[in-house]
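Friendly challenge for the regulars: who can give me the structure tokens for this chain first? No prize, just bragging rights.
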Amino acid sequence: MSKELTVYQAFDRAEIKTLPMIGKEAVDPLFQNAQIALKNPLKPYKRIEILEKVIEIAKGRVPELAITVAREGGKPLVDATVEIERGIQGIQCAIETLKTECGTEVPMGLTPSSEGRLAFTTHEPIGIVVAVSAFNHPFNLIVHQVIPAVAVGCPVIVKPAQLTPISCYNLVEMLYEAGLPKEWCQIALIDREGAELLVTDSRVNFFSFIGSAKVGWYLKSKLAPGARCSLEHGGVAPVIVDSNVDIDSIIAPLAKGAFYHSGQVCVSVQRIFVHKNILEDFSQKISAAASVLKVGDPTLKETAAGPLILPREADRVEQWVYEAKEAGGKILIGGERVSNTCYQPTVILNPSKESKVSTSEIFGPVVCLYGYDKLDEAIATSNSLPVAFQASIFSKDIDIALKAAKSLDASAVMINDHTAFRVDWMPFAGRRSSGLGTGGIPHTMRDMTQEKMIVFKSSGLS
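First reply, four minutes later:
Bragging rights claimed.
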């Protein structure tokens, strides 16, 4: 008996659409189709033609694609529109990478034993890709997991987040419309048991996962021997604010980094370490910035902070803030539920360093402020958690900025910018329990290929 999945609006839980789900019995046919694709490779020029056509189609559908992101994912419409535009740019980035990513010559003749030889490397598709995605960027994350596979010639089976699958369908249907044979990209809307069966199949050559660390590391442990993977989890992003900054100039980017998509971003600003000389002034100004953000229906243009993805996530954030307050944290602004799904942008001053808001990823519209005297103290606390992703330092002193950039345990350190800055061609990766491998369109394309060296031996080279 087939199952169905009902997709709801994140804001008011109104029904959007019902989609059919597949069972575990459908897993083997998915791989059979993918194997057919492998036996009938698409030439590079054909892949480029298809991706260029997808760009053309998507550019004509930005408003409808954005409203879907806003409705199913709760991202404010202005940010949802940016997400679609970023996704289109990501497809263009894949095309450009495909035109430039190539092998290299391997020097020969450097020893008597290597004389008379010519060697070079080429890149080949790694094989079948299985991608499991997350809800918070339902279009652009699918672009980052599916488009690199298509670009390099790998058949891909994608499992979208069950809370936000419609955006995935929209992208895949545009690929079909652009001429991609269906066996090259298949959607697996499947339950947890079926998903594990899919991921752990021996025919998986590359596994791409975006989501919780608990699930990602578990699935990695179950991969078939030889399967490669990339994992992208979350962090508890730290920001250090030096005493010499122009406070007025940094409030807007920090508020954006903290409250964008109501904090449901894996590198969202969460912990801000502010020099005690400016802590009071900074606290007042970041609280003022949070207080004017309009919270509500993400489909309205004036909304700056939408809902949490589920009511239970709003429950969790509410409980964490309450616990922080009970343990001595001072609520400077917010700290209240707006509706069943919405929570006020909240600023907490000096919460306990043992509280959940200080040690775990909030994934909600909450930012914590801590005063510090010495830079080394702020760096040590920033590095004290088992997660490590992106971090930032605000300072006019180049020595302080570079010391922090060198000392912070992060895969990327932003100087005078917030932790959530990202462009889609840059490397994007978690350290330690925050992830494995490197995201970003060109880097993912590289991971989805394997290098082969070819060596000619010829007397004509002697």
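Residues 82 and 368 are 27 Å apart (CA to CA). The longest strand covers residues 117-125. Your move, everyone else.
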